Amino acid sequence: MLARKPKTPATYADLEALPANMVGEILYGVLHAHPRPAPGHARASSRLGAELDGPFDRGRGGPGGWIILDEPELHLGPHVVVPDIAGWRRERLTPFPEHVGRNSEAYSADFPRTHPFAGGLRRFAPNRPLLAHECPRA
């Protein structure tokens, strides 16, 4: 079910006001909140992260040079999203952020006016999560 767009856009304060057992995201000014993942989902996500850690983060049997994180809070223009797992080339995420939040620049991106993401995330599939490989390059 699609959330109805409120009269005023959601803010980071709305995210901070959510209970600790909820995950919140802001897309197109609308606050979307859902419970933390169920144990089966969390286990699947953790196992995927473990599979990616050796070859991509540590370079064991793979290219290395990546930072893989579970549930990072991403600030993409006006949007705040929390994917299950995301990865960055190490050189693109320096310095490594110490925290995220309202006043943090961690995992944020500003786009030139001509960038396809400058006006917001792609609208081709607004009901599906943004995949890590779809995250824009700053």
Brief description of this entry?
18% of the residues lie in helices and 22% in strands. The chain has helices at 12-16, 39-58; strands at residues 22-27, 30-35, 66-70, 74-76, 79-81, 85-89, 108-109.
What can you see in these coordinates?
The protein has 138 residues and is of the alpha+beta class. The protein has two helices and seven strands. The model is unreliable at 104-108 and 110-138 (pLDDT under 50).
Averaged pLDDT: 75
Total of domains = 1
Overall geometry = globular
Strand order of the largest sheet: 5-4-7
Proportion of residues in β-strands: 15-25%
By DSSP (H or I, 4+ residues per run), the number of helices equals 2
Kindly report how far apart the N and C termini lie: 31 Å
Helix content: 10-25%
Question: Could you say which structural class the secondary elements and strand pairing correspond to?
Answer: alpha+beta
Low-pLDDT stretches: 104-108, 110-138
The total strand number stands at: 7
Question: What sequence of helices (H) and strands (E) makes up the elements?
Answer: HEEHEEEEE
Rg result: 16 Å
Task: Outline the biggest β-sheet.
Answer: 3 strands, mixed
